[in-house]
Design brief:
Order of helices and strands: EEEEEHHHEHEHEEEEEEEE
Number of helices: 5
Oligomer: single chain
CATH class of the largest domain: Alpha Beta
Largest sheet: 8 strands, antiparallel
CATH architecture of the largest domain: Roll
Radius of gyration: 20 Å
Strand content: 35-45%
CATH topology of the largest domain: C8orf32 fold
Structural class: alpha+beta
């Protein structure tokens, strides 16, 4: 599948400000099943210094520095990628990880430590994990599929354009959550069983809500011995596939933010963004604004 994405981000300030350093995570990740064909980035005002790099988690980042005051910042990223089709079903009984709670091989455990649970999980998270173990058993892939289905059917998805991800406890108690909230809940339950998980930001070729609006998307991935990183989309109740375009992945949501930066001054700011996605012959456009 060939997918084209244009992502426009605009900041407007009530008076001139001095922009601090910025980090952009807008370029597709270099990973299996995803091949970049074209990428272009336009920034106004032009930065005084622009550096392309890989961060510690393998994300392709652009670091920016600015000189002089400005009352706006416009960032436009455009790219085209080729995505492979859905992965073939895994052979039954082959390369299956051990039962939960999972212990990773000694050569992988230190590398995965940042992606695993730090301390005990909240009681409501442990309760949900036990409920799913009773229902689906301790085979990791079966357990994760049940978790994916549970969040899809029991947690109503909402669109919340701004703000950090809600805690797993908040999402469970409210029964609602944006894609980033659902991803964080998925990771909390998976990590309670010793699994390593990471938060992924990116795009999808069609809306989980079957509406004309297009938004940034987020989903979890879990590392399984012998199988690597496996992606799940609890907002749609499916494994990730050809329609998911990964841009950044991190052990925590802040490490996968598309744009991160600061400014000096007393001005107020306003953010707006628009995402245009064209997959094969179907174009999908969504202008969004937030105060």
């Amino acid at each position: 599948m060939r997918i084209e994405v244009e992502h426009r981000t605009s900041y407007r300030y009530s008076e001139p400000v001095q922009l601090g350093p910025h980090i952009l995570r807008l370029r597709p990740r270099a990973q299996s099943g995803q091949r970049e064909l074209h990428f272009r980035l336009r920034i106004e005002p032009a930065p005084s210094l622009q550096l392309e790099a890989l961060d510690a988690e393998g994300n392709r980042v652009t670091r920016l520095w600015f000189d002089g005051p400005t009352d706006r910042l416009d960032i436009v990223s455009c790219f085209t990628i080729q995505r492979d089709g859905l992965a073939a079903p895994l052979p039954v009984g082959l390369c299956r990880p051990a039962a939960l709670p999972l212990e990773y091989p000694c050569e992988e455990a230190p590398l995965l430590a940042p992606y695993r649970r730090a301390g005990g999980a909240p009681e409501v998270v442990e309760h949900l994990a036990q409920q799913l173990l009773n229902q689906a058993g301790a085979e990791p892939l079966t357990f994760l599929a049940a978790l994916n289905t549970h969040i899809h059917t029991q947690i109503s998805r909402e669109i919340r354009e701004l703000g950090e991800a809600h805690s797993p406890v908040h999402t469970l108690q409210s029964g609602r959550g944006a894609c980033r909230d659902q991803a964080l809940l998925f990771l909390a339950v998976a990590r309670s069983q010793g699994l390593a998980g990471r938060f992924v930001s990116g795009y999808q070729d069609r809306s989980a809500l079957n509406t004309p609006e297009r938004h940034l998307h987020a989903w979890p991935e879990v590392y399984l011995p012998g199988l690597g990183w496996q992606g799940f989309d609890p907002t749609r109740g499916i494994p990730t596939g050809a329609g998911h375009v990964a841009v950044a992945a991190s052990h925590e949501p802040t490490g996968a933010m598309p744009v991160a930066g600061s400014y000096w001054g007393s001005a107020s700011s306003r953010l707006s963004y628009a995402v245009t996605i064209q997959a094969d012959d179907a174009e999908e456009v969504s202008p969004r604004a937030a105060g």
